[in-house]
Amino acid sequence: MADSTQPETIEGGEPTASAASAKPAKPSKPSKAEKRAERLARQITAFATSHGGGAEGQIAHIGRGAVRIALVGTDGEWGVLVAPSQESARRAAEIAGLTLHDDFGGDLAAKVRTGPYEWTRMAGIQLGGTPNPPASASRHA
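Request: output the structure for the sequence above.
Response:
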């Protein structure tokens, strides 16, 4: 009968894998990228909670070192977050349980609810907003 205080050994006198793995492993610190993704996930979750309890989104590259996460809440409200990379944005969406769409069109765009402010901003020139300067005025002399 083996003594329970001694680690199990094989014939060569070396501890077995079960004895070596009995030591508690040190918890690894999350990477900077993982921390960013977790912070974005908290923001996505907060948005979803405050806009009907759910959200859907779409990820798009918007420039050097910037990726847009467009969010549409269950109530039709929308918002945008910016992530430093595709990987960070996708990881945040995964953590938050966000349903992602390939593009911001069709079904996702149809869920967006816009108000007078958005309509005024989108069609500002037609609705009396400040017109763009003529092309000749924008050239340097």
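Strands lie at 55-63, 66-73, 78-83, 99-101.
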